[in-house]
Amino acid sequence: MANQNLQGKKVAILATNGFEQSELLEPRKALDQAGATTKVVSPEAGKIKGWNHKEWGQEVPVDLSLSSANANDFDALLLPGGVMNPDHLRMDPQAVNFVKSFTDSGKPVAAICHGPWTLIEAGAVQGHTMTSWPSLKTDLKNAGANWVDKEVVRDGKLVTSRKPDDIPAFNREMIQLFAETSAQSRTTTRTAA
Prior knowledge:
The protein contains 6 helices and 12 strands. It is of the alpha/beta class.
């Protein structure tokens, strides 16, 4: 596999109460192990509570409040799922603008399960092939995406997956994309200098 060193890369994890626990904790662990610095960004202060399948799960400390977060300080974005989490975030103009800052500037984004809801709200799915939890299929199609039922889909700077069972494939493609994008930006910076 290609370079998976994310040393020096900063990844924002945008989440609020009701995130699917495994979809935040497992990708975060994989990013940390690849050398990235991860920060949980949330409209909530203190801690946010995860959802573990059918009941409340563990709490995760918030590293940075959404109101003081700046997308320019990060290299990539992770959007975990869960039903409540992205449903609240897509109704929060600050959260939508934060996501839009990443997609508008061409930074890579990884979204799993219901995570693409926020991408729809940010106007970032049109023309992309994506996957998600099956109930988002019509929402994504109506927003101009080509929805497919696969464990992981990578299209341009977007990586998407359907559910917790897909996390191993999701993590692999997310780290690959984030590493390649980092390498490209270093190359671009060197050439421009």
